[in-house]
Each structure stands twice: as structure tokens, then as C-alpha cells.
Amino acid sequence: MPFQVLDFHKDIRNVLTTPEIRARFLQVDVGHTAQSHTHDLGHEIFLILQGQAEFTIEGHAEVLGPGQMCIALTDEMHQVRNVGDEPVIMYLSVTPHIQPTHTMWNEDGTKKAPRFVLNTGYDVEPDRETPTDELLDQQLAAAEAWLEAVEASTETQRAQIAAFRTAREAGDEEAALAARDEIWASLYPAFRRAFALADVWNSFTSRPVDTEYTGP
């Protein structure tokens, strides 16, 4: 099956938006300074493809050019400024992508109210077909499915962690690795359910700010 080939010269947009990751090409015009912010959950990676960009992360500033990369970790205040004479084009990714994705701050160091964004802000078409009550039901169902998976995984981990310890004390590497694999087999669906919950959450949080939605 053919895959999409993207070009940073023309595909200036979010190219992938899922709960696991948001990836995009971004252009910063000459002289522009982005608003400083943090991310409650996500690490953000920046790779410069064109131009000169000054990044300030937790108060430390560096100028990056093409081929250079920097990372703002969760809760690290960061800001970017175009300090060159041409538009900056960069690749950036944020993982995970769960609303509210950006945290803004008051001058006194307190957090501003959560800022939820219409999905079009991330180049995702908003759901204008599903009634709001159904979205709420989907949110609750996804949360309950995640909780069920977490509870099942926790029970498995109790048993398999004990089995791992017993096998390690006995020098039985094969049994220890088998216990580890059983733990992963229980964790995998729990992580998948968490991302499914995040997917529904992103759709639900977009609804209250969707001024074009006219349904119930």
C-alpha cells in the first residue's frame, strides 16, 4: 500500500495527529516570537530545516540552524523566536497529544485556565455528526474500558512479579523472562485502552469550543 511522502517546503501543517503523537512542519516568520508555554504531558522535539531560530527552554537560550535539534521536556517552559532574515521552517512533534496540549502561565507563576482547542487547530476535521450526549457516553465507556484493563493488568502483575522474584531466586532465567512477558501481555491492552480514551477525550473537548456545531 503506498504511503504519503511529505515535503517541508510546501506541507506546512500538522501531518499526523493522534493521541500517541502530533507531528508537523511549522513556519515561523521573520521577527516572530511564539508565546512561551509548557506541556503538562508531552515532550516536544524541534528539528530546524531552514533558517535561524532562537529557542529559550527553562531560561536558557540557544540559536539553532538547519540540521540542529532541541527538546523541551514535560513542564519545561519554552519559546521560539526567528532571529534570521528568512522564514524558519522546522519539524516538531509532541508526544502524547492529549488536550489541553498547551499550558499558559500568568506573570505571577500560576497556571492559566486550561485552553481547549477546536480540532481544526491540529488539522483534524471535528466530529459534527455525533450528538453531544453520545460523545459523553463514549467518553465514559472508554474510561470504564481503560479501568477494566488496568485492573486486569494489576492482578496479572501481582502474580507475575511474584513469579519473577521466585524464578530469579531459583536462577531460572527462562521462567523469569516468561513472567516478564506475561506482564507485558497484560500491560499492552491497558496502554491501548489509555490511548483509545485519549482519542475520545480529544473529540469531546473539541465540542464545547466548536461554534459551528448546531446539533444537540
Structure in words:
The protein is α+β, with helices and mostly antiparallel strands. It has helices spanning 132-169, 173-206, and strands at residues 14-17, 22-28, 43-50, 53-57, 60-64, 69-72, 78-82, 88-95. Helix content is 33%, strand content 21%. The model has no long low-confidence stretch (mean pLDDT 97).
List the helices and strands and how they pair.
Blueprint: E1 14-17, E2 22-28, E3 43-50, E4 53-57, E5 60-64, E6 69-72, E7 78-82, E8 88-95, H1 132-169, H2 173-206
Antiparallel strand pairs: 1-2, 2-8, 3-6, 3-8, 4-5, 4-7
Helix pairs in contact: 1-2
Order of helices and strands: EEEEEEEEHH
| Terminal Cα span | 39 Å
Number of strands: 8
Share in β-strands: 15-25%
Strand order of the largest sheet: 1-2-8-3-6
Oligomer designation:
single chain
The outline comes out as globular
Total of DSSP H or I helical runs spanning 4+ residues: 2
- Which ranges are low-confidence, i.e. pLDDT below 50, for 5 or more consecutive residues? none
Main beta sheet strand tally, sense and closure: 5 strands, antiparallel
Radius of gyration: 22 Å
Fraction of residues in helices?
Answer: 25-40%
Q: How does the helix and strand content classify structurally?
A: alpha+beta
Mean pLDDT over the full residue set = 97
